[in-house]
Structure formats: C-alpha cells, structure tokens
Design brief:
- Helix content is 38%, strand content 27%.
- It is of the alpha/beta class and 251 residues long.
- The strands form 3 sheets. The chain has a 6-stranded mixed β-sheet, sandwiched between helices. The protein has a 4-stranded antiparallel β-sheet with strand order 2-1-4-5, covered by helices on one side.
- A hairpin with a 2-residue loop joins β6 and β7.
- α3 crosses α4 and α5 runs parallel beside α6.
- It is globular, with a radius of gyration of 18 Å.
- It starts with a strand and ends with a helix.
Length: 251
C-alpha cells in the first residue's frame, strides 16, 4: 500500500475531529474523499502530511511512518529535519495557492527541489519548465503570481508540488476558491495525473469529477470514514444513510 491510515485519532481540546480513521490507497490509485463540512477531511490530509500531529494511530507512506518512529511500542516524534525529509514524498495542494508573490512562476516551481533536494539550479529550472508545460503554462514561466488568474495559480501550485517527485499527492478542495469557468483547467490537470498513475487522495465537492477519476470514493462523517467503495457503487447505492443524505442534497 502507498498510504495506510490505521486507527488515527486527532482532537482539538475536547473536540474529537478524527475518531479512529482507517483507510488505504494502493500505488497508482486515486481516491476521492467526500463529506460534509466539518467531517474531518482537511484535518486528515494535514495529518497525512504531518502538518498536524496525530494523538493516536499510525500513518505510513510507502511503508515509512509519517512524523514518528516506533520504540518500545510507542510513537516517538522525529526531529523536524527528519520530518521534512519524509514530507518530501507527499505533495499537497491547498484551497489557497500559497505561491511566493516575489518569485516568478518558474522560481516558485524550482525553489523546493533546490532548497530541500539539493538539485542544481539548472536541473531544477529544466524540471520546472517541463512541469509548467505539463500543466499548460509554459508561456507563463517568467511572470509573477499576481499576473495570473486563480486557475492558473492553482496549476502552478500543482506543478510546484510535482517538482518534488512525490510518491503521493494530496488535494484539499483544489477548485473551491476558483470561479466556475476556471475549474475545468485545474480538473483537467488532475485527470492527466490520474492517467499517469499518480497516487492521489483528493478532497473534492466536484461529484461528477469524483465519479470519473476515482478508483475509490470514501465518505467521511463525524470524524470517521464510514464507507469506501467503487464510484459506480457509491453513487448508485451508498451503504450508509449519511452518505445517502449527502448525495440527495447534491445530485
């Protein structure tokens, strides 16, 4: 398995946000994570990338623990440097684009491979040009983020994540901050990644897109993944009443 989430719990004060999450994704598979606002989807992604520490349970990416090592059957937090090294295997694209405004598009994409993978600047720039072409923005390499539309900025953010050659890509509602006419271009890029067999976990509200690209649709409610099944089965006859009510409101 490329991603394994086993009995993961996360609380903020007295509020249990994740309540024993179990989930797995095989290499080359695409999973779409659906659920109502507040069900724990974003928190789960942030725990997978160790932007949040879990309270219990384990997460592994390609067999390696995320953020911890095990000693005497206990989870021991890794030093920040080692966390950063393991985090390189997990790319994450947020709702907001978070590009460096003072860097050009090319510099945004090339920055992390130079800073964290010790790639040479010429190699990083070549990789950045390749990825910008992949997301349809080859001609925008020398402009700054403020000169781009929201959809273009999100595609740069995807290219930036891919520049690290991640084993797993996480998308947290990648189109939610975009005007409707800009959504298609971003989804087309993700469709291309799916065709290339990139392992992905995508939090999305685009149900037609989930039906099209996902190998597995997982539904989250009250801090748990309550069902995970093939898209055709999920959209035809969800197994839980919570998923059924969710689809009734949106289809």
């Amino acid at each position: 398995m490329m991603l394994e989430v086993v009995d993961v719990w996360k609380a903020y004060g007295a509020l249990d946000v994740l309540r024993g999450v179990d989930f797995r994704i095989g290499a080359g598979e695409v999973a779409c994570l659906l659920g109502r606002s507040g069900s724990g989807k974003t928190t789960l992604l942030r725990c997978i990338n160790h932007l949040e520490q879990v309270d219990a349970g384990v997460i592994t990416v390609d067999g390696d623990l995320v953020g911890y090592r095990i000693a005497d059957d206990r989870l021991i937090p890794l030093p920040e440097r080692q966390i950063a090294l393991r985090r390189r295997d997990v790319g994450m694209v947020f709702q907001q684009f978070n590009l460096f405004p003072h860097l050009t598009v090319l510099e945004n994409v090339a920055y992390a491979p130079v800073a964290t993978r010790r790639m040479s600047r010429p190699d990083a720039n070549a990789r950045a040009h390749e990825l910008l072409a992949k997301v349809g923005l080859a001609e925008k390499a020398r402009v700054y983020p403020a000169q781009l539309s929201g959809g273009q900025q999100q595609r740069v953010a995807i290219a930036r994540a891919l520049a690290m050659r991640p084993k797993l890509m996480l998308f947290d509602e990648p189109t939610s901050a975009l005007d409707p006419d800009l959504v298609r271009d971003v989804l087309d890029v993700i469709r291309g990644l799916a065709a290339d067999k990139m392992t992905m976990l995508i939090v999305t509200h685009e149900l037609g897109f989930a039906r099209e690209v996902a190998d597995t649709v997982a539904f989250m409610a009250h801090g748990k993944i309550v069902e995970a099944t093939a898209p055709a089965e999920f959209f035809r006859k969800p197994r839980t009443s919570a998923a059924g009510r969710f689809l009734e409101r949106r289809l």
